[in-house]
Amino acid sequence: MSEMEIEVSDDINGELEKMKESILVSVVESCGFFRSQQVGEPDLTVSEKREIASKLLSQNVPLFLERYWKYIKLEDVSYFESFKSYEVNFYLSEIRKFRDAHLNNIQIKNRRYGALKKMIQEGSYFSDAEMKKRYPYLYDQMIFQHLTENERIAAYKEQHKDEKFSSFLMGQMERNVENCLFEEQKNENEAVKEEEEDEDDESEEESELEDEGPKFISPSEKSRLREEFTDIMYEKFLSGKDSHFDYSSVDYNAEYDPPEKYYDDEEKYFSNE
């Protein structure tokens, strides 16, 4: 063997060792199965998990993949390419499909997050008027019913300040749709409450309290409810629940990709969510 061939072989072995180490670290840090334990038996230590995983990787690659394929990174798949068998090929294919789907999911979430930030800055999609159109019943319960008469008048003027006489009929049609949506969302909410009340011994007392109508709340409570309502609107957008929004304009649009340095932080954010 020539000196160049030896160097190439050393490089390949070095890469394989790096991948092996990465694989073992990923597996040891996972919640995968290592061995059966009795009730009350202390959890396995990191070194014990590593010893079990390392031994299995050396002795039975198909079984190792069967147990831990979901925890193996895409860049480490080539470590197993020399272990040719039906089982190995099957799990390598599963890893690739799983990781591709995972990456696509993260990419979509990142793009929606980018679109969310842009729309918040623009101030139209998440204005009171637009959020009220999408979720009129929730807006009424959390914001509108707690406004004073002057605040309601000011809110109405703000929401209709750009409405011209020529668009009055169109605006009236939109309000009719909004009213229908209000009743639909109200009925859905009441159905959920009735179901919960059937399971609650104190449901009658709670219903009587609810029938008393809106109560006076402090400015700080108003502010808290508005913040909570807005957060709900953000979450509905991110989770794809805004039924009339064209998500394809965001999900397949690289314009909303964040700078590379933000990917890790945003992936961590969505993982926690």
Give the tags.
mainly alpha, 12 helices
Give an overview of the whole structure:
Helices cover 67% and strands 0% of the residues. Helix 1 (3-28) packs across helix 2 and helix 2 crosses helix 3 (61-68). It is an all-alpha fold and 273 residues long. Mean pLDDT is 78; it is low at 3-8, 202-211 and 268-273. This is Coiled-coil domain-containing protein 97. Residues 183-192, 258-273 have a biased composition (Basic and acidic residues). Residues 110-273 form the CCD97-like C-terminal domain.
- Uncertain segments are 3-8, 202-211, 268-273
Tell me the fraction of residues in β-strands, as a range.
Answer: under 5%
**Sheet with most strands:** none
The secondary structure category is mainly alpha
Helical fraction equals 55-70%
**What's the mean pLDDT score?**
78
Gross morphology is elongated
The succession of helices and strands, N to C, reads HHHHHHHHHHHH
The total of helices stands at 12
C-alpha end-to-end distance? 54 Å
DSSP strand tally: 0
- Rg, alpha carbons: 28 Å
Q: Which secondary structure elements does this structure contain, and how are they paired or packed?
A:
Blueprint: H1 3-28, H2 46-59, H3 61-68, H4 86-122, H5 128-134, H6 136-142, H7 149-159, H8 168-198, H9 203-210, H10 219-238, H11 248-251, H12 263-272
Helix pairs in contact: 1-2, 2-3, 3-4, 5-6
Question: Could you write a compact summary of the structure shown?
Answer:
This protein is mainly alpha-helical and about 270 residues long.
